């Protein structure tokens, strides 16, 4: 699939989510998170929050198509970027917890795709005009992460308990990781924007290798993290369609709670 604008990105992600719910496919976990981020970005465009809304539409479309290209390549013949192959390769692993699947998608999309999409949107010196809008998305990501974290808590009781004991430490770590990754992605975007096609190919290859290494660390962590994940896995829901549906409604719940409070 290929999107021509941000509306088609949202529609394409919604289709992935629908198929995942029907088939019980864990690919819907990250797709549900990503769909909600994209809806929030689209809302911000319509509200005039970005310096250049039309440019952000193009940027988000390039970004979304990077995901669709990886998705289609994996479905076709298990090909595509290394980091996405690492993420998709664990979809049938029932021992991988929900948070791991989300982080694997976030890792590939931010640590590889984001810089590529930014450089394509604003090649050459024009990349610097994108900086404010690029960084503004951090706030959107942070808001979605907060609500999706609440959804995960409902699906994973032990993670919810750790949340309360740790004063939402895991959420702050996730938010910080996303922000730091986006900061690195910005530097990579500036680099790519000033390179020739041959140089870009080499840089993209390097970024893919780095993201693939990070994916392996997320998938198979060492130390005390592994037994902690095993405990979390033992308590969280294994109903994949229900998990996908729950995650896909994460951003609807704040409005519902505000309505109830009123």
TrEMBL record:
User: Which Pfam family, just one, is annotated for this protein?
Assistant: DUF5995
What is the top-level taxon of the source organism? Answer: Bacteria
Family annotation (InterPro entries): DUF5995 (IPR046037)
Question: Could you tell me what this protein is called?
Answer: DUF5995 family protein
- Which source organism? Streptomyces ossamyceticus
């Amino acid at each position: 699939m290929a999107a021509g604008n941000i509306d088609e990105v949202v529609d394409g992600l919604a289709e992935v989510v629908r198929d995942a719910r029907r088939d019980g496919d864990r690919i819907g976990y990250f797709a549900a998170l990503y769909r909600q981020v994209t809806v929030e970005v689209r809302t911000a465009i319509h509200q005039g929050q970005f310096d250049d809304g039309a440019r952000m539409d193009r940027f988000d479309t390039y970004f979304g198509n990077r995901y669709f290209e990886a998705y289609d390549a994996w479905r076709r013949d298990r090909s595509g970027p290394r980091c996405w192959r690492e993420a998709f390769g664990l979809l049938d692993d029932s021992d991988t917890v929900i948070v791991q699947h989300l982080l694997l998608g976030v890792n590939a999309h931010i640590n590889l795709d984001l810089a590529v999409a930014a450089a394509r949107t604003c090649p050459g010196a024009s990349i610097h005009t994108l900086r404010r809008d690029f960084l503004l998305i951090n706030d959107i990501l942070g808001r979605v992460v907060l609500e999706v974290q609440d959804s995960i808590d409902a699906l994973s009781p032990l993670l919810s308990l750790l949340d309360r004991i740790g004063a939402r430490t895991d959420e702050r770590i996730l938010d910080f990781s996303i922000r730091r990754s986006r900061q690195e992605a910005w530097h990579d975007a500036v680099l790519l924007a000033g390179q020739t096609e041959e140089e870009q190919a080499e840089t993209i290859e390097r970024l893919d290798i780095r993201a693939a290494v990070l994916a392996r660390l997320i998938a198979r962590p060492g130390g005390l993290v592994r037994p902690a994940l095993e405990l979390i896995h033992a308590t969280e829901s294994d109903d994949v369609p229900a998990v996908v549906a729950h995650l896909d409604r994460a951003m609807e719940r704040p409005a519902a709670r505000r309505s109830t409070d009123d």
